[in-house]
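Regression test case RT-17, inverse folding.

Input:
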């Protein structure tokens, strides 16, 4: 008699993995892209939640389990190609090594599907955006320049309407 031992760390897959939704989310290569200006990104950097980012990074490996998901698998593969760069209460910005991948995630339909994945994963509605490594370096430098001359906006004075980007 062979006994099968279950790993003590084995996690139960989430309910949404097995839903009956047979409408596969396809990753679009082209389409209308979302674009967020530098000023808004810098405001989001001011609002950034370091602990929220750490929490997301610690859960990033969970996405590996869902790469074969019949509905979200392709979208999750695209998400996994990036890494969390910035997390706020309502926004997740991912960083990609290649501009082409960042552009692909920023296609409106792909962004909507990526947001849906994070809604399931985090239990809250979030807006997802992508930047290339070159963009994050440039924006971080701009952020630091503003910080050095005390020109960063105050966090409590920042108002961002995400509807204009959706």
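Golden output:
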């Amino acid at each position: 008699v062979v006994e099968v031992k279950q790993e003590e760390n084995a996690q139960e897959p989430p309910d949404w993995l097995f839903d009956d939704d047979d409408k596969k989310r396809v990753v679009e290569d082209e389409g209308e892209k979302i674009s967020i200006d530098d000023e808004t990104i810098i405001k989001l950097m001011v609002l950034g939640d370091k602990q929220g980012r750490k929490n997301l990074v610690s859960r990033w490996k969970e996405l590996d389990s869902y790469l074969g998901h019949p509905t979200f698998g392709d979208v999750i593969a695209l998400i996994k190609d990036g890494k969390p760069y910035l997390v706020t209460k309502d926004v997740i910005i991912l960083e990609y090594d290649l501009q082409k991948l960042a552009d692909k995630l920023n296609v409106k339909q792909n962004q909507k599907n990526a947001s849906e994945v994070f809604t399931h994963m985090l239990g809250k509605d979030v807006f997802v955006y992508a930047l290339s490594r070159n963009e994050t370096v440039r924006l971080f430098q701009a952020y630091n320049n503003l910080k050095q001359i005390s020109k960063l906006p105050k966090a409590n004075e920042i108002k961002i309407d995400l509807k204009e980007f959706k």
